[in-house]
Amino acid sequence: MPSVFIAESVSAEDFYDGRVDGHAANEVIKIRGLKAAYRVTLTRAW
Q: Long-range CB contacts (< 8 A, 24+ apart) of 40-46?
């Protein structure tokens, strides 16, 4: 079975406000019957 790895880099503000697009992509991939791994990384503010 094919699999997909989703890596999303977001700001802390977007993460805590729930503005992450990778979650939706992960759900669509699972509906299509594929395996998916979804990871979020926080962008460092300078």
A: 40/8, 40/9, 40/10, 40/15, 41/7, 41/8, 41/9, 41/10, 42/9, 42/10, 42/11, 42/12, 42/15, 43/9, 43/10, 43/11, 43/12, 45/11, 45/12
